[in-house]
Amino acid sequence: MSGITAERGIPDTPPREESYLTAETGLASWLLTTDHKRIALLFMAAITVFFFVGGAGAVALRIELFTPQADLLSDDAYNRAFTFHGVIMVWFFLIPSIPNILGNFLLPLMIGAKDLAFPRLNLLSFYIFTLAGILAIYTLLAGGVDTGWTFYTPLSTAFSNANVLAAAAAVFVAGFSTIATSVNFIATVHMLRAPGMTWFRLPLFVWAIYATSIVMVLATPVLAMVLLLIFAERAFGIPIFDPLRGGDPILFQHLFWFYSHPAVYIMILPSFGVISELVTCYARRRVFGYSFMVYAILWIALVGFLVWGHHMFVSGQSMLANLAFSFLSFVVAVPSAIKVFNWTATLYRGQIVFDAPMIYALGFIGLFTIGGLTGLFLASIPVDVHVTDTYFVVAHFHYIMVGGAVSALYGGLSFWWPKMFGRLYPEGWARFAAVMMFFGFGFTFFPMFIMGFLGMPRRYHVYAEEFQVWHVLASAGAVILAAAYLLPMGYLAWSLVWGRRATANPWNATGLEWQTSSPPPTENFRAPPVVTQGPYHYHPEHAGPPAHERDPHSPQGGQVEREQ
User: Where is this region: Disordered (predicted)?
Assistant: First the structure.
């Protein structure tokens, strides 16, 4: 794995067999591939670019907010900068990252399939997504949009610049990619499971991707419709949202948040699946309450459609509606709490190994718990009225969507990197990056809770001087966080050339994806697998640290090697 492994004298594995990486060569073989694993890597390349492009907008914001005056950006430029950051990060990073990268690569492997149900549709989804992302970047750079990522009316329909239509078109086109990928995942789970892979033998990551796909298929058309309505009003003058001509701007909020609150779970449900896989592996125990975890995932997917109105407590909707949405917002927190309790119970008395994926998982649990608890504050009508449109909401959103989802993405990449590329990265650097990400995120966003409670409004770049100390702390934390995001790019790229060869199962994990070579062959398995038991069966002989931590000369270590 790392220098640590080399010092312990673990020999290199035999030369690797032909894999999906080496089966075909040449640029055309990648650009025209229908192999789900290669398409996952194409998505990884595109999403990584969008991540850093969107992150550039955040850098501009933090530099501007370092002082109370407008030093770097004008009023209009600041509006365009946070719109740029939001549009790219929400629709071209947070929503597609784990499903399109890890889901695409792992779903067929985890259920024993050769590929996704519709390989050509999978490739088409990648090209639609990439073209939409390029259109969004071009639009946001060539003049920009000043509405924020929510495109609120009547600003987006009557007062903003003409680039609104192009930016909305980019998001609209990206929705086709989202729906295509989701349909592919749903069909694959229903039709291509290996013999013996019953529904309640599915890994929790598969359940999470499946539930997310259902939410995507049901919710994304609503976003498409509301974007078309913006187009109809701007292009043809149809008075849908303009109150001066009989339209209703509150209708836009209802339609937008009916999609966008389920979209929150589109971003976080796949993270739940990743964290479940990491916690059970590095605690060397079965997931506590597997059935409860499955039902919690489905509960979140269902009830997530019923809570959109808590974004609108100050919009003028009826108090009865506010009370109903407040109650449902507390209800939807219950399955999330179940998952945190079950992860904690899985860790209890486990033989925990603090490798990088586990540190990312523990960081996720900490950040998500803070984000979830502050979500209960926002579900309470009096508190929400006080902190609406303040930095409290910014902090809550980022703790869930960025702190949680990005920690899970990095943890998942660390965990399955040896399976994807057949190489092991330097563990020491990976642990350092995981710890740095947790603390960097806390220094960046926790001060925003304090600012928001004290009354600092969001989307303002000129602010009262008493808030400067909190902004300086947040900007300093952002430097640490940026380093934590960049560092894995370096050591993971290094591992592709100089990393030690990975065995088929370097973590001694359960799951079908670990029963094939690293990296897998083109059709995933040399022989079709047959499933005879449920997931996460860590028997007594598998207790202890993962295989890469063991002495290969001990009887237990030898047993692991023979099993592999």
Answer: 512-564
